[in-house]
Specification:
Keywords: Coiled coil, Kinase, Membrane, Transferase, Transmembrane, Transmembrane helix, Two-component regulatory system. The chain has 15 helices and 17 strands. With 641 residues, the chain is α+β, with helices and mostly antiparallel strands.
Length: 641
Amino acid sequence: MMKNLLIVMFLFIGIWITSQMKADTMFVNGGNWIPLFSKSSYYIDSSNSKNVFQISQINNNFRKVDHPSNLILKKQTKTVWVHAYIKNTGNRKDYWLGIYSQLDILNVYRKTEQGIVLLKKYNISYANKQDIPDIRFHYVPFVLNKSEIAEIYMEIRNPRYYQNIYSDFTTPVENLFWENGFYWEIGFVIGVTFIIAVLSLVVGIILRRRFYFLYSLYLVLIAIIVVREEFFINIIKVPFLYYSILKTNSLFLLVIAMGLSMKIMTGFLDFRKNNGGQFRILNTIFDFYVTFGILASLWFYIDYANTTFDNPIYNGIWDISIGLSALAVLIQITILIWLGLQNKRPSLGILAAVLFGLINPVTYFFNYSRILTIYEISHPNYFYYVLLLEIFIMGIAIAYSYRKIKSQYISTLEDKLKLEEENSKIKQMEEEKIKQSILESQEHLLKSLSKDLHDDIGQKLSIINFSVENLRFAVSSKESINEIRSSILEISDSVRDLSHWLNDFSIGKNTIDEIILNEVERIRKTNIIKINFEKINNSSENYGTSTEENIIFYRCFQESINNILKHSNASQINIIIDYTNIISISIEDNGNGFDVNNQFGNGIKNIKERATLIGFSCTIQSNPEKGTKISIYKNDKPSNH
């Protein structure tokens, strides 16, 4: 009897305890993540006017959340109320309720024995510049003792984005520990993205290639979209920058990014090469994407308060943007397959198209907004790794393209320099031919003139001089005759010098020893003085003199011989050309000599100056009554001979 009574009593107690437990109660026991919406219900206030007290009286009108972790309502401009029971079955009592969504209004209430208490109020006011949230998501601290049950209400409104809300319940320590790792992972992705964007911009400036500018802008837009979708905007503590990014629309930025992406893809794959007509059509479509996205983004930024789904214009632009984004993916898939067929690699084209269809910014955004459910969202999202891989591949492509373009520039420059060099050589050869023709003509003319001066005028002056000499003995006024004779001699010397000067134009064809030997032979024929000529190291090939050097040598030699004949009273001249040390010429006489410490005359000065003009040196060795030696040389010191 007693045993049956105890069984009935325990059954009664169990039924009573069960009756006190709500069917949708969520159990928490410490550091684990419990999705709130897995045990929650929601109610849509179509009037947007009910308060929490009114809502608490209509619990029977709440509906069960369909998704195991997210509240997905797509376009919903009305106020959404969420109701949930949470029971702590563990020993910890400090908890956080985290809410992850882009919200305009968030109010969190807790029902207690004393009434309903407001725990969190968030109503963003762009006019008042409300304080920026502490961390990237909204959170509400809870103190929940063991076995205690908390009844909560959440008031949510998101009138301009798809309703896709995630909420969890865990301890602050575990939550912040996880968030810390997530911050580093997302921060790394965004940091790398911005660094590559800057590098691409620099490369674009250096190479002046539009492709790199577009890729840099594309990366910046993708980084902003990731910041917006992962709610990292809340970590920006500069109010102006925070509200500027907050009033951007990820979908409209996505349209711009896809327009740029299509331009980048066709440029990178060189689609224009064999598809000129199609490329022009596609390029017009790409420009439309960019223009449409920019105009929609500007309108959203300027008229933020009125850009909600209640506005039919905004609603239409949103739907058009969704369609354009999906169409962009289809266009790029088609391009990849088309290029694969063109290059006779259809399998590769199809594989690339499938991979791109799964891995692209549109799929990422659609999945986050729950327009599509291709994969379950996890953190970090696989798209970040794909983005890093894309950046790495594009970085290699940029480096390769930079190297290729640089090589092309260098090759083009080398070809240009080579062509200019060849043109310069051809021009120089033509100029040389013309110059040679002119010189030959001048040489022929001047030789004829020199011959006429020497043979005709020179002979006539000699006859006149002879006649005057005879006349001097017949006429008593010898002084006048002497003046006439002196003038005739001066004219004769001038004619001879002019003849020699004109003859210099033929000097360039002979070696210096041939030139001097010819002059020695001419002097020998006059029997005026004994002259010896010697050549040491019998080869002039060791040093080939230029025409200019030949003329200067000849002039120095002439000046030396004239000085000897006029001033030295010498009976013998010794001339030595030595090729042992490049070249050296010495002219030595046995005449009067002079004191080298006294100032030289104009003749000696002329010899030194002329030798210096062609980089030669000149030394004078002389003593009174012992003769003079003049040395002209190119080496460090004159010959010892």
